[in-house]
Amino acid sequence: MHSEDTFSTRAAELIRAGRFFFERGWVPATAGNFSARLDERHVAITVSGRHKGELTAEDFLVVDVEGQVRSEGKRPSAELPLHLQIYQRDESLGAVLHTHSVNATLLSRLHRDVLVLEGYEVLKALRGIGTHEARVEVPIFPNDQDVPRLAARVQEYMAEHPEMHGYLIAGHGLYTWGRSVEEACRHVEAFEFLLACEIEMRRLSR
Ligand SMILES: CSC[C@@H](O)[C@@H](O)C(=O)COP(=O)(O)O
Ligand SMILES: [Zn+2]
């Protein structure tokens, strides 16, 4: 069972991530949600509707990996099922981060089905990738206000593509994860850099 200390440490890491993302314009107007694993069965996740650049420890609650809320009187992120799907499928994963940057939103509307990232040195910031020659496929799922249905769709796709590092939701944003909050943050930064390159490349090659 996790301690209060674990909760506070994970919350502090996610608060720092929220400030960093907000400063860069990746979580505007209460958009985005963050979570971190506390132990095998429990996760801390942001309360729904909170501003992600101004989080405090009060803006987190505890849920179990089946989605049962363990903190009375707090409503979890509307996108909780997308976080739980990741924790349920892989016990080694420790954090899930969701952002809404302009670049993720635009690219997810310009492309259908999948965005291919290749030829970038920064791909090596993604766990397990050792060369710029890697080909990273970022699937794009249609947005869906029925979040459990969307989570089931992601789950089905991930069963076929277990090597995935993240995905886009059309007109919505990015989901990525890692073994720790630090690794998940690195993945957000890497994806945001790569998405910015892709946008700029399209502009330059017009
Ligand atoms: C402010 S619009 C964004 C929301 O609809 C949603 O997509 C989102 O990312 C934040 O929802 P939340 O329930 O606060 O976790
Ligand atoms: Zn969202």
UniProtKB/TrEMBL annotation:
Enzyme Commission numbers on file: 4.2.1.109
Recorded catalytic activity of this chain's protein: 5-(methylsulfanyl)-D-ribulose 1-phosphate = 5-methylsulfanyl-2,3-dioxopentyl phosphate + H2O
GO biological process: L-methionine salvage from methylthioadenosine; pentose catabolic process
Source taxon at top rank: Bacteria
Molecular function via GO: aldehyde-lyase activity; methylthioribulose 1-phosphate dehydratase activity; zinc ion binding
Cofactor note: Binds 1 zinc ion per subunit.
Cofactor annotation: Zn(2+)
Binding site for Zn(2+): H98, H100
Pathway involvement of the protein, from the record: Amino-acid biosynthesis; L-methionine biosynthesis via salvage pathway; L-methionine from S-methyl-5-thio-alpha-D-ribose 1-phosphate: step 2/6
Keywords: Amino-acid biosynthesis, Lyase, Metal-binding, Methionine biosynthesis, Zinc
First-tier enzyme category under EC: lyase
Domain spans labelled Class II aldolase/adducin N-terminal: 12-199
GO cellular component, one term: cytosol
Family per similarity comment: Belongs to the aldolase class II family. MtnB subfamily.
Role played: Catalyzes the dehydration of methylthioribulose-1-phosphate (MTRu-1-P) into 2,3-diketo-5-methylthiopentyl-1-phosphate (DK-MTP-1-P).
Full protein name: Methylthioribulose-1-phosphate dehydratase
Origin species: Hyalangium minutum
Gene for this chain: mtnB
